[in-house]
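Anyone else keep sequences and structure tokens together like this?

Example one:
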Amino acid sequence: MINNFKDKKVLLMGLGLHGGAVAVLNWLAKNGAILTVTDIKSKKELKASLDKIKTRKKIKYTLGKHDLADFKDQDLIVQNTGVPSDSKYIKYARKQGIPVVNEAVMFFGLYPSEIIGVTGTRGKSTTASLLHAILKTEIKNNVLAGNIATVPMFSVIDKLKEDSWPVLELSSWHLDGLGEYRKSPHIAVVTNVMVDHLNRYKNFTAYKRAKLINVKYQKKDDIAVLNYDNKDTKSFARKTKARVYYFSLKRKVRGCYKKNNWLYFYNGKESKRVMSFKNIRLLGEHNTQNILAAVTVAKLLGIKNKNIAKAVNKFKGVDYRLEYKGKKNNVEIYNDSTSTTPDATIAAIRALEGKSIVLLAGGEDKQLDYKELAKEIKKSVNFLVLLSGSGSDKLKKELADIAYPSYQMLTGIDDLAIACDLALKYSGGRDRAILFSPAAASFNMFANEFDRARQFDKLIDGKEKKTKK
């Protein structure tokens, strides 16, 4: 891959709204690249991103469409992770012999030292963020970046030292690109692999193949940290050359495991207590798994137990992942808007076991199965408010098939403000809670899941001042 970008012609395909592509563009401009930007969104739709472009250098823009002419005569194409790999424009560029990379491939090519890569269907943001919090207690120049919306990779790359141990949250789309260049991180964490993104991948096997890339090209001196309790993740152990460690809620493993409300680390020779779980702030069994994953890496890097315990107990979680927002009219509010799959919403419901739950859910389908979520709703949810969308329609059908009472739900709501008002209206009983956990994609009503989450926050914060928990 190109390492010197001065006077190189680079096409950035997909500016997007998450910030990652803007950071890449600003970095490339600073390093002397001759830039072209193309995106199917209009200038108006991309205003938030265009306003963040810092360079005064002339950039060619093709917005509202792609033009095949832009894909000729380039030295490099940087593909935004939102752009599908089967794009006819990407295929055309490859036929011209033009290399295609994404931000992760660039990062791996430019940073010369060890990288920690965290992926998974669920829990990767929480695990990566917690791991960063732990490592910062002793590795002061450690950074967190990647798929997590707040920190693009190319906003931090120039700040790194050789001993920074950057923690990258890697999506399956990042990994698709890395696979083409046969790259895996030195320490690879896979939190779990569950059915997701079937609107982008042909089937679950193809999606799982993408997640495998995190460990597939590791060397014998590298380390893979896998979820022993998830069969698809556990199977990756046979497909990597790295030293394998696990984390488990169910049994003693080489790595971290839970026993009698204590976290233990077993190095293959002896088990030692690391910390108690009694003071943690994160809710739910899924978050306990995230803690185990992060602590496994921390122990392998030699972080002291007292610093691990301090960081874990202080950690409140990640924005929009089962985030407690306070109380409204004595009703607890949780923003779990980044839960875009049925499995994620099931985990959130179970984390609030014992509470009288009003679930605010719904959105666009990603070709996922809603049967198990319907069963969990019938078992554990007092009232359901469904936003409009194709995913909502599928869930509604599954609920009808198991005779979920129609008087316990309202459907087809196409305004989030109205949905919030209805959720508050129908919240009743002791230990009341409103859980906003959509179990679906957001693009039918919102720019993305973060826009959805921020809009929910504004509505909640606008109704009544937050209270502390």
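And example two:
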Amino acid sequence: MAFSLKNTSRQFAFGLVALVAIAGFDVGSAKAVEVQEVVSKGGIKAWLIEDHLNPLLTIDFAFKGAGAATDPDGKLGRANMVSGLIDEGAGDMDSQTFRGLMENKSISLAYDAGRDDFTGSLVTLTRERPTAINLLKLSLTSPRFDDEAVERIRSQIVAGLKQEETDPGSMAQRAFFKSVFGEHPYARPVEGTFETVNGLKVADLRDFVKRSLARDNLVIGVAGDISAKELGPLLDEAFGGLPEKSRLPEIPAVTPKFGGDVKVISQDNPQSQAIWGQKGIARKDKDFYAAYVMNYILGGGGFSSRLTEEVREKRGLAYGVYSYLANLDQADFMMGGVATRNDAIGKSLSVIRDEWQKMQKDGITQDELDNAKSYLTGAFPLRFTSLGNLSGMLVGMQTEDLGIDFLDKRNDYVNAVSLQDVNRVASELMDPNHVTAIVVGKPEGKLTF
């Protein structure tokens, strides 16, 4: 669920098992990780990484195309609300019984709704696997949506919406998506609005489950203490009761519109927060990795990035500044953000624009490229320090159609990027004259990007 306001039993359970995951996992090399494709007798497919060092299993899964973009007009926030309720009682267990069993068995079961997909994650100790799989199955096929749970989660979402009304980051993000996506479903808030959330009925929630959660749009990643032979029957047990076909609306492709302007949302605050965006690059584009390396050097590399060096280290204008490549199913764009004093936001944006222009005009140096490659390839195996990271990556590899051998090839893709590749892509991709920026606060002076 978009707002993390539920009780802490989920956090307790995850914290307990995460300690086990981190304690003994081998992080030596991506190439040492074997990914297996497992297909159950019922035809349910999953990608698996076995690791028997610890008695722990993680299952991540996604229902593709079932995210908040499918929320009907007038029912915004439906997918998000379901994500908060689907594990609040199922089968013959009410919320207290269901979640009490999870806590007693140190089982973590969590759901979330993004713009594109509806996702879930299960973490369990091996000895509790039968109980965990049963809870997962019930949550997907027999959620209760009892009145008490519905009104409790609704009140939490409404409280979160109230907080967002005055949260600069949330205000900026909502305004940005509305500005660049217009009437497209991506422009709408995942969490919904006060009016739509308060208007959602139990029948709406059940309709979402009936239409959206099915085997044909299901993607599964599994990591941990289980063999391929054991996993097949488990997949049928957990997911076999789902409908064969989903019934989802088609979300059209969209080209975000970037106007080259700075929009200010006035808020009486000593700081201003800004986010900005411009055109991006598709994940499957042949030049994606060149753009990926370029962005690392520009603003994705933390203290190693140009933006941090120029905005924070040299001038002390802001504590943090960043940029990243954003990819949705139907749109690609590049974003960045910074927060600083009202009297420094104008200068910060000016410096950032200079770096945007410099990247477009001059590109990068060979030393920058070598350092970026060294970090990006060397740090990649560190993503394998927990089973949850691995099972989540397996889902991402499938939803992005990266191939089952991606973990073996990923560093080769990075190493294949040349200086000429990056500088060509920078000249074509960077577009400082068509950047949309949103500033929330009381900025002083002239703002340009």
